[in-house]
Write a structure and sequence with these properties.
By secondary structure, the protein is α+β, with helices and mostly antiparallel strands. Helix content is 20%, strand content 33%. It contains four helices and 13 strands. The strands form five sheets. It has a five-stranded mixed sheet with strand order 5-10-11-13-12. A two-stranded antiparallel ribbon has the order 1-2. It is globular.
Length: 198
């Protein structure tokens, strides 16, 4: 197996045949990245757009009147619930980024763009890409990085934090410490593919 040395004494698998992209006068090689094609079918948790999910089940939940719950000496009032439908959705096929190791300025964004292009060229996935933005060094979180590329969290409150950060200049040093599941909305695909590291 070919290995590539990244930083001091850390070895990661080398990605064979990785394309090289030109940005300005420099050549940027994509960072090592692990990803896979997810056939979909997992239950949706969080807010995904319609083009990422399909309806699995629709269940009618009847009206439930207000009631009192007793536990020992304590009483608790459980409010009434109106009759409603509960919808359960599953994810459609998509590419998922498992791990990304930056090797320098612009390498991470080039790696992500190559996966987005792969998803765009796959008729089953049509540009759908997800990532779970997690902290791996105990100090930083990649949510802001992916947000800049056009990805969005499945939790709207985290998107609002990142939007405010971008409006305030989007400096790496002040990036919000946000983690969670993210997806690339179809309206942001072109932005991601055209993104140039500054």
């Amino acid at each position: 197996m070919n290995l590539i040395k990244v930083r001091n004494y850390v070895l990661y698998p080398k990605i064979s045949g990785s394309p090289t992209f030109k940005a300005g006068f420099s050549t940027i090689k994509p960072a090592p990245v692990q990803f896979h094609k997810d056939k979909g079918g997992t239950i949706v948790f969080g807010e995904y757009p319609e083009d990422y999910q399909k309806l699995l089940q629709c269940e009618f939940v009847p009206y439930a009147p207000e009631r009192i719950s007793k536990f020992g000496n304590k009483k608790r009032i459980i409010p009434a619930k109106e009759a409603h439908y509960e919808y359960i959705y599953t994810l459609l096929p998509h590419y998922h980024i498992d791990k990304l190791w930056s090797t320098g300025h612009g390498s991470g964004s080039e790696a992500v763009k190559s996966i987005v292009k792969k998803s765009l060229n796959d008729p089953e996935t049509n540009g759908r890409v997800t990532v779970e933005a997690t902290c791996i060094d105990g100090k930083t979180a990649p949510g802001g990085f992916y947000y800049k590329l056009g990805f969005r969290f499945v939790q709207n409150d985290l998107n609002k934090l990142c939007e405010q950060w971008l409006n305030d200049g989007g400096q790496k040093e002040g990036a919000p410490f946000v983690t969670g599941m993210m997806y690339l909305p179809k309206e942001n695909i072109q932005h991601c593919v055209d993104y140039r590291y500054k």
